[in-house]
Automatic annotation (TrEMBL):
Substrate binds at residues 298, 302, 329, 356. Its cofactor is pyridoxal 5'-phosphate. It comes from Robiginitalea biformata (strain ATCC BAA-864 / DSM 15991 / KCTC 12146 / HTCC2501). PANTHER family: DIAMINOPIMELATE DECARBOXYLASE, GROUP IV DECARBOXYLASE. The gene is lysA. Pyridoxal 5'-phosphate binds at residues 218, 356. HAMAP family: LysA. This is Diaminopimelate decarboxylase. Keywords: Amino-acid biosynthesis, Decarboxylase, Lyase, Lysine biosynthesis, Pyridoxal phosphate. Specifically catalyzes the decarboxylation of meso-diaminopimelate (meso-DAP) to L-lysine. Coiled coil: none annotated. GO terms for molecular function: diaminopimelate decarboxylase activity; pyridoxal phosphate binding. Homodimer.
């Protein structure tokens, strides 16, 4: 997408607004499938939590993607978007047995990550095939908040609990058709995948009826110019070759599965915000925009870096700005960042806004969530309307006794008497 395209969208749909480039999503999907072309049976399950708009789900479904879900609501969204139940894997954490049973009733692939639920589910539904999520005790990911495969993580069944796991499977006679892991997000070193894969391969040998092995995801994408990223081509060559060796030893061709989310949609996303005020203080120049961490929380939550450019003045002189939002709390997108000179009314563009951005937006400060636009085949398509006040109060319920009660006015003399 070009700057003029984004400026046109800001003009036509208003700001703030999220924009997604369909072409970039398509090219990322093709890049990953090509990287693992040595694997006869490859399945990419898009992680819906990254960006769950129905139009995005349909776009990826049309590309041949499966769907990775973590809630019953994401399962329902996937079915509504046209995914076949057998192309959806459901990997929850800490949910009730009833929710897992509801997902199973819809025909999707169940993935269980704790011994208690595994035993309960296997006892009641031994004929429903189940995937098992293993915790390989591998520390990986961009920071502690997105590292999920280490020994203190709440995710997965510890590799040290394999004997207990095998006992449950034996006693319940349940069917295990898949082994899964996910070590974290923003993984740079492909050796993490190669090391953890050996743990999965060793675990897989305990089960004779597997259909797939799922390596999760966590591929790192570049967030700024010159940034490093996961070399998926090298990973495809090395892990793909090792996977084929394992299948030979296992005696059957299995499916190699991944669950990319950020890798597919992060770079496709742009967040556009308008500058409300440029404020000079004794030490800082603030550019205050018509948004905040209610729309884009990643910088405040994770310390994430989103490249920011001034679309309205692409040729201007660079100056240092701290870009901040309008939330009544510390609300910083970037501190002392070099950006082309900013004036009030300019449109700023935040890059890498496709993954974990709109999906984590809220109505904090009673602000409306922004619109979403899909750029496809050179045209802008509105895929979510901007919220309004009716949306904000839609599910709120007035208590009649409060709504009808007249407002009381304090008597200043009575208040003075109470003080005395």
């Amino acid at each position: 997408m070009k700057g003029k395209d984004l400026l046109g969208i800001a003009k036509d749909f208003g700001a703030p607004v999220y924009v997604y480039d369909a072409g970039k999503i398509q090219s990322q999907f093709k890049r990953l499938t090509h990287a693992f072309r040595v694997v006869p049976k490859l399945k990419l399950n898009y992680a819906a939590k990254a960006l769950s708009n129905l139009s995005i789900l349909r776009l990826l479904n049309n590309l041949g993607s499966g769907l990775d879900t973590v809630s019953i609501q994401e399962v329902q969204l996937g079915l509504l978007a046209g995914y076949r139940p057998e192309d959806i894997i459901y990997t929850p954490n800490g949910v009730s047995l009833e929710e897992i049973e509801e997902a199973a009733s819809l025909g999707v692939q169940i993935n269980i990550d704790n011994l208690s639920i595994l035993e309960q589910f296997g006892s009641k539904h031994p004929d429903i095939p189940v995937c098992i999520r293993i915790n390989p005790h591998v520390m990986a990911g961009g920071n502690s908040k997105i590292s999920v495969g280490h020994i203190d993580s709440k995710f997965g069944i510890s590799i040290h609990q394999i004997p207990h796991l095998l006992r449950i499977v034996e006693l319940t006679k349940m069917k295990i058709n898949g082994i899964h892991m996910h070590t974290g997000s923003d993984i740079l070193d492909i050796d993490v995948f190669l090391y953890a894969s050996e743990i999965l391969f060793d675990t897989a040998m305990h089960f004779k009826d597997l259909e797939f092995i799922d390596f999760g995801s966590g591929f790192k994408v570049p967030y700024k110019e010159g940034d490093i990223e996961t070399n998926v081509e090298e990973l495809g060559e090395k892990l793909g070759g090792r996977f084929r060796e394992f299948c030979d030893a296992y005696g059957r061709e299995l499916t190699l599965a991944f669950e990319p989310g950020k890798f597919l949609v992060s770079e496709a996303g742009y967040f556009l915000a308008r500058v409300n005020v440029v404020k000079q203080t004794t030490s800082t120049v603030f550019a205050g925009v018509d948004s905040g961490f209610n729309h884009l929380i990643r910088p405040m939550l994770y310390g994430a870096n989103h490249h920011i450019e001034n679309l309205s003045n692409p040729g201007g002189k660079e100056r240092y700005y701290s870009v901040v939002g309008y939330i009544c709390e510390t609300d910083t997108f970037a501190s002392n960042r070099r950006i082309r000179e900013i004036s009030e009314g300019d449109i700023l563009c935040f890059r890498n806004a496709g993954a974990y951005c709109f999906t984590m937006a809220s109505n904090y400060n009673s602000r409306f969530r922004p619109a979403e636009v899909l750029w496809m085949d050179g045209k802008a398509h509105l895929i979510r309307k901007r919220e309004n006040f009716e949306d904000l109060i839609r599910n709120q319920v007035d208590v009649p006794a409060l709504a009808e009660r007249p407002r009381q006015t304090a008597d200043p003399n009575e208040a003075h008497s109470r003080v005395k």
